[in-house]
Design brief:
Radius of gyration: 18 Å
Order of helices and strands: HHHHHEEHHHHH
Distance between the termini: 6 Å
Structural class: mainly alpha
Strand content: under 5%
Number of helices: 10
Number of strands: 2
Shape: globular
Largest sheet: 2 strands, antiparallel
Strand order of the largest sheet: 1-2
Helix content: 55-70%
Length: 262
Amino acid sequence: MPSTLAFPATLRRPCRSPRSARLAALLLAAGLGLSGCATTQDPDPLESMNRKTFALNEGVDRFVLKPAATAYEAAVPAPVRTGVSNFFSNLGDPWSGVNAILQGRVKDGLSDFGRFGTNTTVGLLGVMDVATGWGMPHQGESFNDTLRVWGVAGGAYLVLPLFGPSDLRGLAAWPVNTLASAPSQIGDAGTAGALTLVGVVDQRARLLSVTRMIDEVALDKYSFVRDAYLQRRLQREAGPAGDGDGDGGGDSEGAAEAAAPR
């Protein structure tokens, strides 16, 4: 699943105490400090631990997420599912705009803010993607992309419990992305939890065809997903600024984002 995919936020509003701020800082420092542990010849020095986490994620996906996503796909018409996906994509556009500006791409950042305003109003709370046709494409930038542009190496490949494929840079970016996510800003835990649940199921449903393909062709699913993720990361790092994760996957570049449940 995405690295950065882009897993929706936690089920409850995070504490904004100095203690949580220190935790975020420690995770950031750990990710930056350990980014040099991997090498080109061995990008997966944590493979033993990663395979165990991957197996755990596969179990959760097999017995919980995949059945829920399959039922959702069968029960909800495709146009409605598209509207739900658009809604969640729209929620992420303001944070994408912030990250584009942090990367020095002010024009793209303003475009993301304009996209959010357009789709929230004309697009009926983001259910319809009007902005793309009006010259404001989806950017999908995250703090992981910002760290990449700032020169922070991805580091060792890492499989996160429930979140799927990532790396040490992604681990460092995770608390910042979580604190900035839309569900995290909702004071009511029930509403935030419901929003997160729907987002998880919608994202998993969009990846059903990809995961079926991986199950059919991959002799070693762990290696297949890892190699797809690392190849995608290499392409982004070799490309121009702005070649972000494009969350929603979905995430959107299938194998790397379908690696594990979201």
